[in-house]
Amino acid sequence: MSDDAFVPLQAIKGRGAASRLAHRFSKDERSAFDDGWGSLQAKQGEDDDLPPLATEVRFEDVKSALTGNESPDVYFERSLNPYRGCEHGCIYCFARPTHSYLNLSPGLDFETRLIAKRNIAQVLRAELGRRGYRPAGLAIGTATDAYQPVERDLRLTRGVLEVLQECRHPFGLVTKSSAVEHDLDIIAPMAAQQLAAVYVTLTTLDGELARKLEPRAASPRRRLRTIATLAAAGVPVGVSVAPQIPFVTEDMERVLEAAWAAGARSAFYTVIRLPWEVAPLFHQWLEVHYPQRAGRVMARIRDMRGGKDYDADFASRMKGSGPWADLIAQRFAKATQRLGFNRERHVMDLEAFRPPAAHGQGSLF
């Protein structure tokens, strides 16, 4: 069967992935093809008239809220994510393969079938109250965004922050959403006590590219306004210019300049990571949006990964290796040095922590 017999992939409005790619544990994989009876054209016509894909939210009760980190290339010791899956739909998201463990596609299912950990605030409170608990660096939203659109109604992240505020537990938060501004009444006072910092991911200033890469995240201009709002409120704010994608995101220096002007004072980056199913999904995305440069983009990515789509070696997985990775590192270093990023280290106050107050009869003693 020739390649042109298969249904061509098409961009789906408001979504990053172009398919429900079968996950790596699936026993069956199905592909549509032209049987010569005109059914392919008819099916495509039907697809054009379909309404936009709706987002489904399922709820789960978790047994633990905090996840320990043992990776030597990650700066935090613990992480917390109120949601599994992310409606922002960033095509490059390294967390997409986690949906495979739910028997769901890392493609469209990851961004349309979300799991909300509805009891996460209560479980966190219990964990912080355990005898012998000691505070450590805590990062929120490291896998999926804690402020994706469903947070407006579910307010799970808000509940987590209320627990952390009660316990004076320090945290850092990473987001692409302007919705973080809604919780400034908690974040700003904690920042004043050296208990909070926020990092805004700003991949590019190109609005058209951002709509393809991160279809339901805030626009680049809106994220810059969020940086300015946070900085004005006294919150230490940094910018993540991640991921860097050769021949796709080409405006790193402009992004850093705009973030500095808005009030960010720390910055970091990573290069694109394509573990497991993210690699074929990203291939599909390139063929849909940038078919003429797809081969060139993948060749440069493989140059940074020892000839492979991805290399999980802790020594290089975040920044890559080789001449292209070195070039990106040099550009970042020169731009941040010129602008003044990362000159002061923000130190969290771990000594301020106090266990959550007891409830019920025990609180009388």
Description:
With about 375 residues, this protein is α/β, with parallel strands linked by helices. The protein has one domain (about 50-340): TIM Barrel (Alpha-Beta Barrel), CATH 3.20.20. The protein has helices at about 40-50, 110, 120-130, 150-155, 155-165, 185-190, 205-215, 220-230, 250-260, 280-290, 295-305, 325-340, and strands at about 55-60, 65-70, 80, 85, 115, 140, 170-175, 195-200, 235-240, 265-270. A seven-stranded mixed sheet has the order 2-3-6-7-8-9-10. β7, α6 (about 185-190) and β8 form a beta-alpha-beta unit. The longest helix is centred in the C-terminal third of the chain and has 17 residues, at about 325-340. The radius of gyration is 22 Å and the shape is globular. The termini are far apart. Residues about 1-5, about 40-45 and about 360-365 have low confidence and may be disordered.
Strand content: 5-15%
- How much helical structure, as a percent, in the residues? 25-40%
Briefly note the structural class of the backbone: alpha/beta
Structural Rg: 22 Å
Short description:
The chain has 365 residues and is α/β, with parallel strands linked by helices. The chain has a single domain, classed as TIM Barrel.
Which labels suit this protein?
single chain, about 375 residues, alpha/beta, TIM Barrel, 7-stranded mixed sheet, 3-stranded mixed sheet, 12 helices, globular, disordered C terminus
How would the blueprint of this fold be written?
Blueprint: H1 39-49, E1 56-60, E2 67-68, E3 78-80, E4 83-84, H2 108-112, E5 113-117, H3 120-128, E6 138-140, H4 151-154, H5 156-167, E7 171-175, H6 184-192, E8 196-201, H7 207-213, H8 220-232, E9 237-240, H9 252-262, E10 266-268, H10 278-289, H11 294-303, H12 323-339
Parallel strand pairs: 1-5, 3-6, 6-7, 7-8, 8-9, 9-10
Antiparallel strand pairs: 2-3, 4-5
